[in-house]
Specification:
Elements (H helix, E strand, L loop, with lengths): L9 H36 L10 H54 L2 H6 L3 H43 L1 H7 L3 H38 L1 H7 L2 H54 L4 H42 L7 H14 L12 E9 L7 E10 L4 E6 L5 H8 L6 E7 L2 E2 L5 H7 E4 L8 E2 H6 L7 H10 L3 H6 L7 E2 L8 H15 L3 E5 L7 H14 L4 E6 L10 E6 L2 E7 H6 L4 H10 L21 H4 L7 H7 L2 H4 L21 E4 L2 H11 L8 H11 L3 H30 L11 H50 L2 H4 L6 H9 L6 H37 L2 H19 L18 E6 L5 H8 L7 E3 L1 E2 L2 E2 L5 H6 L1 E4 L10 H5 L9 H10 L3 H6 L15 H14 L4 E5 L7 H13 L5 E6 L2 H6 L2 E6 L2 E6 L1 H7 L2 H9 L2
Parallel strand pairs: 3-10, 3-11, 6-9, 9-10, 14-20, 14-21, 18-19, 19-20
Antiparallel strand pairs: 1-2, 1-4, 4-5, 7-8, 11-12, 13-15, 16-17, 21-22
Helix pairs in contact: 1-2, 1-4, 1-9, 2-4, 4-5, 4-6, 4-9, 5-8, 6-8, 6-9, 6-28, 8-9, 8-26, 14-16, 17-40, 19-37, 25-26, 25-29, 26-29, 34-36, 39-40
């Protein structure tokens, strides 16, 4: 239990803890004072009608003083309670802040092997955030009430014992049984709360995947599959919560019954003691009043124990997340312990200088300890020069950068930075002196300027201007309404992949660290921009250490030093001119392959050379003579059994698909304005509206009505119990009437016990049934939300308020709070109504004047409640054209290329073709049918898209490949398609082959892209859209994909969105776009001869 307070800091919190302790102590003593004062009033009443007071006015005066003393205590309670609750709320907020700060620091401090080991990381983040809220609540309001009640319970027991220890023991004799039941039921509640939290994490992961990969899910038509997975997980959450609710209800009902029974057993003993003269009536009433308040305190404590229990479970979940059991081998444990001890006393040299040396490095990812990514790699990076590390995707280039930044530590061999061993250097010093620019760039919600200056907060406006000029962002800034102050992300614009990479380069320019690592950081740029930025980088980095990890050999100059890697080893190294001088070197072959230009066919019937003596058309191609290395990479067996490979003839089918976009306009500025107006953050919904929606949407409303009925019974039983117990109390008075006869006392004792049983049973059923109904409602809301999200258009996901993380938190976390509305709130309101109604009738019947005096305070109560509710509501709520005038046609079965600079609108066309965005003007037709007349699912079954940034869910390689497919796919089909994209050897190297779980952190960008292409091929589409599908591939694999397009996809209309000249040459026709408009159209050779836009783009890349 005390775990929830582990984030308190006595040094900083002593004052607020002291104030909270004193005010809680004072608050806790209030029931004792009230009990004593009530006993004094009752003692005074026994003198009524006697000669103790000479006059009636004297008696009334004394009675008034004693009564108003109770009112005075109540007046003093107001400021004390306010200060106490405020202090406890502040304690909870401080703890929440510290836990979140610790979590953030923890996330930053983890190396990549921790992230690799946590496959369900996104769902964990969401649930841990919810756990922080539960810890905050348990250490604030719940702790305040329990602390106060503990003081009250101790003081009430002491007071009761003082007045009559024997009567107190008799009243509390059932307390041990009560404690046993509370402990047992609490353990059950804790058990099922843990299970519910665990399953909620799984549901959050499914929802997170659905929100982040919504485009892919639409294209693959797998909304139904994600909906089914989500529902299965949500139903498990419901099952665990219902069981938790069952034991919580049993706990509350048993406590309620036993507490009420205490008074009957105490009454009999007290009455006997009065008759014997051992106690007077005032002492008995004081004991009874103390024990009555004791029972109330116990009941209130029980309700908060559930919250404390949830906080305890939440804290255990946070601790388990931060401090999981180590699953690594003993070797890694030993090495990590050594590294952690050295990193704590890491060195921070004054100057960052010297060579970077990788000496005999071998490395395997912790999750795949037997699959070595690096094998005895030795590389010497000279200081002050630009060095290149090249190789095919998956060869281990990016892993070297990760090791240099100490993201992984479980390697063998040594890495030296100058004269220091890497492990002896301070982590902060390394990050201050090394900048890594990766292929993907993370942008934050905020302005473009803030996204750039995050690398250097002290940068001036002139520095930002120079950085933007260096990264060629000026053209993008010209098209942005507010320039560098334009908002990005949520509430702002979205940059293209190339523009995002330019932002990353601008950040690196501002940091200007001694060492710069560029890891495929220019892959999304068009050829002209790439060439310009490469030259700018060389000029900027003159005399500084720069490491370029790439598969683009055109960036390498003759005097640059190159390391060529393959399958985790360095196969060649040397200056470029030295490697090219060797005609049989791998580097020469790969360089030739990347620059190899295929002559376009002169006619539709043009065929590749083929000789019967050759095993395949590829074997007879001159390029095949250069290296077995290429064929080992692409998998030659793929083509042996495919007769279509032998002939590259383009076969024309009757009724061939026709793509005919005409005059497509998307006035994005106007639509964004309308979207913002429609998507303004709504205010809080009125309670009446929420209750109305709940009534209509809640399934099995009969259980809700039944729960409300038991709430009404519980409400009625309260004043009835008070009435019948008052009859028992009259038996204490020795007035000579029959009220103290045995028959009278027995009769009312049985009635009181019966009402206690009714109250206990009704408490159980109202708590359980309303809790069950609340969970049914929450489950239905989650399922409906998931269903509606799966049907939303792509525009909806782009609206400012529809942030995926917030939607996930809203559906999985915030909806939990609605349980209280259907259970606790409705129960409390129903009980209050009937308590007030029955109690008021009884009070008026007993004495209407006194009743009117008591209810005279109701207006003030309602006034203060209304003001509080209004303030709470106030604070709760405080929390350009892409394509223009485009017209083109893709006839027959062709390979159709779309070329243009980054941000020109190329990728938008694929979204329009698949109806992920609607076309307001103009039309797109396939055949002679407007796509708006097609069924969306039927249309998307005919189209496959390979995106620039492939997405995979948390599952095996096999599950990701067959994702969304209606037919069964055999192993041979999977093997064939994997060979066609040169992934068969990679999959065979995985621990469980096709059944190995995918982790993108353990795959290179090229491997992920090829896997995405394989998935698209399995769907057997009629139209395939390749959106920069070779941007992360090396020359050999790019060539293989190009040949795949030319020779295998002969029955498929292929639309290629590319910056690559190699891919342009594969296309039958090219469409060149600039700023959303078509500049020219034709074949690659025709457009080059025109010396227009395409010639400008291509020629710039050749220098």
């Amino acid at each position: 239990m005390f775990d929830i307070y582990r984030n308190l800091e006595l040094k900083n919190d002593w004052l607020i803890l002291t104030v909270a302790a004193f005010t809680t102590l004072a608050n806790g003593l209030v029931p004792v004072v009230i009990s004593i004062l009530t006993g004094r009033v009752f003692n005074l009443l026994k003198f009524l009608g006697t000669d103790t007071y000479k006059t009636k006015s004297e008696f009334v005066h004394e009675l008034t003083l004693r009564s108003f003393s109770i009112a005075a205590v109540a007046a003093c309670v107001i400021p004390i309670s306010w200060v106490s609750i405020s202090c406890w709320m502040a304690i909870g907020e401080r703890q929440g802040f510290r836990i979140r700060s610790s979590l953030l620091s923890f996330y930053f401090d983890r190396d990549l092997q921790w992230y690799d080991a946590n496959q369900n990381i996104e769902g964990e983040f969401i649930q841990v955030n919810r756990c922080v809220e539960e810890v905050r609540a348990s250490s604030a309001e719940a702790s305040a009430i329990i602390s106060q009640n503990i003081v009250s319970i101790i003081a009430l027991i002491a007071t009761s014992m003082y007045y009559s220890w024997s009567l107190t023991l008799i009243i509390l004799c059932s307390l041990p049984l009560l404690v046993i039941l509370v402990v047992w039921f609490s353990k059950k509640v804790e058990k099922f709360s843990k299970l519910e939290n665990a399953e909620s994490t799984n549901a959050s992961s499914i929802l997170a995947w659905s929100l982040s990969a919504f485009q892919m899910i639409r294209l693959f038509d797998t909304s139904y599959l994600e909906q089914a997975n989500f529902e299965t997980s949500i139903f498990k959450c419901r099952k665990f919560f219902v069981k938790s609710c069952l034991f919580a209800a049993l706990n509350a009902s048993s406590l309620r019954f036993l507490v009420l029974c205490m008074f009957v057993q105490g009454f009999w003993f007290g009455n006997t003691q009065i008759k014997r003269g051992n106690l007077d009536a005032g002492d008995v009433v004081t004991c009874f009043s103390s024990c009555l308040l004791l029972g109330s305190s116990l009941s209130g404590t029980l309700q908060q124990i559930v919250t404390i229990q949830k906080g305890k479970v939440a804290m255990q979940r946070i601790n388990g997340f931060i401090l999981p059991k180590d699953t690594l081998t003993d070797m890694w444990e030993k090495r990590n312990s050594i590294i952690s001890s050295t990193s704590s006393i890491g060195l921070s040299p004054i100057f960052c200088e010297g060579d970077i040396v990788f000496d005999n490095i071998s490395f395997a990812y912790p999750t795949r300890p037997d699959d070595y990514i690096l094998k005895n790699v030795s590389i010497h990076i000279r200081s002050g020069v630009t060095s290149f590390i090249v190789g095919k995707s998956g060869s281990g280039k990016s892993t070297l950068a990760s090791l240099l930044l100490k993201m992984y530590s479980n390697y063998t061999g040594d890495i030296k930075f100058g004269r220091y061993n890497l492990q002896s250097l301070d982590d902060s010093w390394l990050t201050e002196n090394i900048t890594l620019v990766e292929q993907s760039c993370t942008l934050f919600n905020g302005t473009l300027k803030n996204n750039i200056t995050i690398a250097n907060k002290d940068a001036s406006d002139d520095d930002v201007r120079k950085a933007c000029q260096f990264a060629l962002l000026n053209s993008a800034l010209h098209n942005l309404s507010d320039g560098v102050n334009t908002l990005l992300g949520r509430h702002g614009v979205t940059l293209s992949g190339g523009q995002q990479q330019r932002v990353a380069l601008a950040r690196a320019y501002l940091r200007d660290t001694p060492v710069l690592i560029l890891d495929e950081s220019l892959s999304a740029l068009d050829a002209m921009s790439r060439e310009l930025i490469v030259e700018a980088i060389r000029h900027w980095r003159n005399g500084k250490s720069t490491i370029v990890l790439t598969h683009e050999y055109s960036q390498i100059k003759e005097n640059d030093y190159v390391y060529l890697m393959d399958e985790g080893a360095v196969v060649e190294s040397g200056f470029k001119h030295e490697l090219l001088a060797k005609s049989d070197s791998y580097f020469t072959q790969l360089n030739y392959l990347q620059n190899f230009i295929t002559e376009p066919p002169t006619s539709p019937d043009a065929q590749l050379p083929y000789s019967p003596g050759c095993n395949s058309a590829y074997a007879c191609n001159p390029i095949s003579r250069f290296s077995r290395f290429f064929f080992d990479t692409v998998g030659l067996d793929t083509y042996h059994n495919n007769p279509t490979v032998y002939n590259s003839k383009k076969r024309i089918r009757p009724n061939a698909e026709r793509i005919d976009p005409a005059n497509i306009k998307r006035e994005l500025q106007n639509s964004q304005k309308g979207d913002l107006e429609e998507n303004r953050k709504p205010g809080l919904m009125k309670l009446s509206c929420i209750l109305k929606k709940m009534t209509y949407s809640m399934p099995k409303r009969r259980y809700l009505l039944l729960g409300l009925l038991f709430s009404a019974i519980a409400g009625i039983s309260n004043p009835l119990f008070s009435y019948t117990f008052s009859k028992l109390l009259t038996g204490i008075a020795q007035d000579g009437s029959n009220n103290n006869s045995s028959f009278y006392l027995m009769k009312w004792s049985i009635i009181v016990l019966s009402l206690a049983a009714v109250d206990g049973v009704s408490t159980f059923f109202k708590d359980f049934l309303l809790g069950y109904c609340s969970e049914l409602w929450i489950t239905q809301l989650r399922i409906d939300a998931m269903s509606k999200i799966s049907r939303c258009s792509l525009e909806w996901f782009g609206l400012p308020n529809n942030n995926s993380s917030e939607l996930n938190s809203l559906i999985m976390n915030d909806l939990r709070d609605l349980r209280g509305l259907a259970s606790e709130f409705l129960s409390a309101i129903t009980t209050l109504i009937f308590v007030a109604f029955v109690g008021l009738i009884w009070a008026i019947a007993a004495g209407w004047k006194l009743s009117l005096v008591c209810i005279s305070l109701f207006p003030a109560f309602l006034l203060f409640s209304g003001v509080y509710g209004s303030l709470l509501q106030v604070y709760e709520t405080t929390y350009k054209n892409e394509i223009a005038e485009l017209e083109t046609k893709a006839h027959e079965i062709v390979t159709f290329g779309i070329v243009g600079e980054s941000g020109s609108g190329k990728s938008t066309l694929s979204l329009l073709l698949t109806r992920l965005y609607s076309v307001p003007d103009g039309r797109i037709s396939i055949g002679k049918t407007d796509i708006n007349r097609w069924d969306e699912e039927a249309l998307r079954r005919q189209i496959s898209i390979v995106e620039q940034k492939p997405k995979f869910f948390d599952g095996t390689v096999r599950e990701n490949l067959v994702y969304g497919m209606k037919k069964t796919v055999s192993v041979s089909e999977l093997s064939s398609v994997l060979r066609s994209v040169a992934l068969s050897s990679f999959v065979r190297s995985l621990p469980y082959g096709l059944d190995t779980r995918i982790h993108l952190g353990l795959m290179s960008g090229g491997q992920a892209q090829r896997l995405s292409i394989a998935r698209a091929l399995l769907r057997d589409p009629k139209i395939m859209i390749l959106d920069e599908c070779t941007s992360a591939l090396d020359a050999t694999n790019s060539f293989a994909i190009a040949e795949l397009i030319k020779s295998v996809l002969i029955d498929v209309t292929v639309i290629v969105i590319t910056h690559s000249e190699q891919m342009m040459q594969v296309c039958d026709r090219l469409l060149v776009i600039n700023k959303g408009k078509v500049k020219e159209e034709g074949s690659f050779s025709e457009l080059l001869e025109r010396r227009g836009e395409l010639y400008r783009i291509v020629s710039s890349s050749k220098g």
